[in-house]
Every structure is written in C-alpha cells, then in structure tokens.
Amino acid sequence: MGIDFEKLKALAKDDEAFEELVRLINTFSGNSFTSVGEFKDFFITERNRKSSKRLQISKSVKDILGYTSEEIENMQGGLFALVYEDDSALVKRNISEFETNPKNFSMQHIYRLVDKEGKPHWIKQSINVERDEHGRIIKELTIICDINSIKENEEKFKNDVQHLREINKSKDRFISIVSHDLRAPFTSLLGFSEILLNENELSDEEKNEYLSYIYDASQNQLQLINYLLEWSRLQTGRIQMEPKRLNLRVVVSTCVASLIGNAIRKDIDVVQEIDNDIFIQADEKLISQAITNLISNAIKFTPRNKSVTITSAKFKLGTVELIIKDEGRGIAEKDQEKVFKIDEKFTLEGTEGEKGSGLGLTLVKEIVDKHKGEIWFYSKVDEGTEFHITLPEAKNIILLVEDDESIMDLYNKSIQRALPNYEVIRSANGYEAMSIIMNCLPTIVITDHDMPLMNGYQLVEAIRKRDKNFAIPIVVVSAQLDKELEKKYENMGVAKILYKPIQSEDFVKSLKELII
Fold first, then answer.
1. Counting beta carbons within 10 angstroms of the beta carbon of residue 166, is it exposed (0 to 12), middle (13 to 18) or buried (19 or more)?
2. What's the predicted TM-score (pTM) here?
C-alpha cells in the first residue's frame, strides 16, 4: 500500500484537516476511531531511508513520554534507546524479522518504553513501509499509540478475576465446613431426644445429663447460625452502618457487664483501663458485638483466678486502639494464620470445656473492616493472647449557633480555656448550622433561641429529624422562655436550657456535665 508521506506530514500539523489523518491512523493501526477527539494519545515517527533523512518524531511524544521530540531524535539509538530492558530482545527480534522479509509492508507489536520519570509505559507500535523493487525499505511511517491505561485496566481485570476465583474457592470450602458443622450435631441431638422420648426407666440424673447435652449443643448451633446470618448480612450490605459518636469506656463497660456472669463463675478479674475522654465514631450495635466477642473469648480461654485486661489509647492521628489481653492458653503458631480465614474453620475448647463456633473472630474482623479499622493479635501457648483493634476516633466538635458576634466570642473563649481539646465551629444562623451538621457530627450544639431566619426551636426540630436517636446533646440559650416553650424544648430532647446572662463558670460546667 502506498503512503503519501508528505500529505501525512502536512496533516499532522493542521488540526482542521486532521480527520483525514484519523482515517490513515485507523488504516495503519487497526483501530476504529471515528473522530480526532477519540484518538489523542499517539505520536508519529517518519524516516526517508533513500535520502538518509534522520528520524523525525511528532511533538505529541512529549505528552506521552515526557521527552521532547528533539531530545529523542538526538539520543543515540533514537526511540529504541527508551525500550524497556525486559522487552528489548523481543522488540529487536520483531523488527529484524519484519525488515528482512521483503513481503512485509506493515506490522504491529506491543511493548514498553521508559518515560522521562523512569517508569515503563505500554505502547502499541504500528509500522508501515514502502519498499523498492528489490524489497529494500525506502520510506517508513510509525504510529505509536499510548495504551498504558488499557494495559493497567487489563492487569487490574486479571487481578480482580484471580481475586474472585480465590473468593469462590474460599466460599466453596467455607460452605463445605459449615454444612458439616450444621449437620453433625443433629445425629446426637436426635439420638438423645429419642432416648428421652422412648426410655421410661431413665433416672432423673440421666435425664438431666441428656437434656443438658441437648441444651448446650442447641445453644452452640444457635450461635453458629447467628454468626452466619450476621456475616452474610455484612457481606451483602444488608446491614446499614449507622456510625455515631460513642464513649469507648461506656461501650466496653456495657460489653463487660453482659459477660460478668461468665467471669464470676471462673473467678476471673476483668480489668478496664480506659480513659473517659476517648470517643470513637462507630455503629454502636456492631462494635459492641465485636468487642463482646473478643472479651468473651478472653474469658473462655483464661484459667480460673487469672485476669483479662482491657486498655485503650490514641493510636495514629484520628485513630483509637483497643487492646484485650488475657492470661489464657494462647494460640499455637501453626494455627495463627487460620484465625480470621472464613475457609479454614479454627476453634478451641475453653479452659473448662466451653465450646465455640469458630466463626466469631471472622465476624469481628468483618465488623472492624467495615469501620475502616484493623485487627491483629500476639499469642504464645500457655502465656495468653493479646488482640488489638483500631477504630476511627470521633472528633471533639462544639457547634455554636449565635447571631451576636460579641456573645459568640465570649462563648468561644470560655470553651477554649476549659476544653482545649475541642474544636469550636461557629455559625450565625440555623440554616448555616444545618449545613455544617450535614457534613460532620458535632459533640454538642449550643444555640440561641432568638435568631433571625430560623429560631432555636426550629433548628432543634430540624436537627432531630436528622438525629432521630438523640445522639447530639443540644444546649439552648435564651434571655427568657415561657413555660410552654420550655416544655416543647424538653419534649425535643434538649439537654439543657440556659438563661442569659450566663456566668462563664456555669456555662463551662454545663458543657462538662454533658461531655462526661
């Protein structure tokens, strides 16, 4: 096929006539673009070997490789000096085979060039030549297309496919394990039930023994099913996360309280060392479930008269770390990699024969992952285990809503002196305040009642429509309120009503009561 090199060269410099160049590019590169806008990432090289004309490269090369055309033209070896080392032998072989075969007029191959930043960059090269009557190349035109993003997406797709295959294999193994665990106890359960139904001469002691076995086995099966359902709901997104500001000490204390009976029965001391001013941003139900599971395991695997210690501290910026440490049996090194794997069920008996489902820690990891946190552990046999989880820290924010600038300054100074760890966000009206609340969850909202555009009651009403669980304490400040309005505020869950003029000490004391 003949190529009008002079026309092509002219077209390369003339944007208005570029549609013809697109047609030529489609012909030589094997693509099917319909307009210039669809095909921007390419550059052209040209050589007239008959006149020993040097290689010329279009200026668009800079957009792809970072080098100017002049820089590449002056390199020894030209463009081929930038061929990625791992691809060099293949490129040389392809070019040699093409050039030495007089019947070849065009070829394509894909390889990598090294850009100016030293990074390999995938390109597709389409070479088209004219030969003389002896088959020697006299003119050469190359169109080099940038396919780096295509190759990256291709690699990502391959990785995604591999990842999905691994997930499917894991789930197949998991289903196999769970199917066995769900079915296995029923042989014994049905057997003992049949004995109880048909044997009339059993002693009370035997009956109680069989009933005790049936009860314990049923409890374990129920726990397994509950864990399966929770894990499935988390995996499929059927559980809606509702993160809010939570006092970590309060959350942990509630979890410990639900397990205190287990600890008392084994004479295990559960020690909590958590500062009262640590707050997390988490879904209360889910995170309580995760923490309860970790504490329950610690009690289960700890011998009598030992202790379980729960501590917490700031981890990285914006992150809180919770540590649950026991003095129990520990996890053997060979089993540690199985702990969080859904397809390798791992379970141990407690120090007094307590059973487990083998899915509790898998569920804990799923919950921590949903909170963008991390979980890990250290363990030694007969020395104990120490689980660590990280969770997002809740920012300490006080939202001031007041149209009087001087009063706002006074409040602001009082807060900064008494509560230096709290950030104060100021708002001059209720509409602006609602816009702020849409983007962040304040620790406390302090609002004046008498404001333009939207009064205090209307603002509280708007907040409660969004905050249906009354998670944000609200303080209303006013010069005077009638009894009916006070009652309305109380019904809306307002934490405090303060009357002007307010002493700085009383103002700060009221805030501290709400924070603690």
1. exposed
2. 0.54
